[in-house]
Amino acid sequence: MQKEIINRVANSKLITINLEDYYPEGKRSLFDIKDWLFEGLVLREKDFRQKVKAHDWSQYRDNYISLTCSTDAIIPSWAYMLLTTYLTPFVKKVFVGNLETLETSIYQDIITNLDVSEYKDKPVIIKGCTNKPVPKNAYILLTSKLMPVAKSIMFGEACSSVPLYKKSK
Asked: What pTM does this model have?
């Protein structure tokens, strides 16, 4: 007589959070202003403003944009602010930095607004494997957000999780 196989993971009170489930749709684009600089190094205000005004900003509709300058030029803050005024009507988010920091900023907004009340006094596993580019900082942000409410926090899969935090009794 064979014993019935019982799925203890399915029957447990563990709650799995998959950050990939919160990944917002929208193209991520790096907008490099080096081509709008004189010799790639000097921002001439009049020329820069003309290029900004003539550019078709609608092509970035529903994108997440990371503004950058890949040369050693010193870019004044107002230049990024000016670009933002043209991009904002079309894009989901504008950020200064690289694509990884943009993704971190997107997830910071998501996690800040995440209601974690359902995880109160429950054991939580933060799933580790994703097919989408979830930044490492998102895991840190989520862990910090869960610590005041969760009974325990683990990382990985239910069958092979790494314990990270357990609330004191």
From this structure: 0.83
